Amino acid sequence: MYDQQPPQSIQSVEVVDAMGEWFVFICEGNGEPVVQPFGIESYARAYAEGQRIRLGLERFTTI
Q1: How far is CA 45 from each of CA 14, 22, 48, 59, rounded to the nearest angstrom?
Q2: Which helix (H) or strand (E) holds 3?
Q3: Which of 1, 10, 34, 47 has the fewest CB within 10 Å, making it most exposed?
Q4: Domain parsing of the chain, residue ranges
């Protein structure tokens, strides 16, 4: 009998500002996150918003 819960699938979208460059981290389940770089904040936020909608998340995080 299997008495442990299987690993949960974690989905998230994060926007990170690193010295003037913007990165969007997309986590879809148990795999490695996908990182997309942007030179303009508004492009990063628009991309993150689209990924948030695609994944069915309530919001994305800005770090």
Answers
A1: 9, 9, 5, 11
A2: none
A3: 1
A4: 11-62
The predicted structure's pLDDT at residue 60:
93
How many other CB atoms are found less than 10 A from the CB of residue 49?
A: 15
Helix ranges (H only) for 1-63 are 41-55
Alpha-carbon span 42 to 48, nearest angstrom: 10
pLDDT attached to residue 47: 98
Burial of 57 (0-12, 13-18, 19+ CB in 10 A): middle
What pTM was computed for the model?
0.81
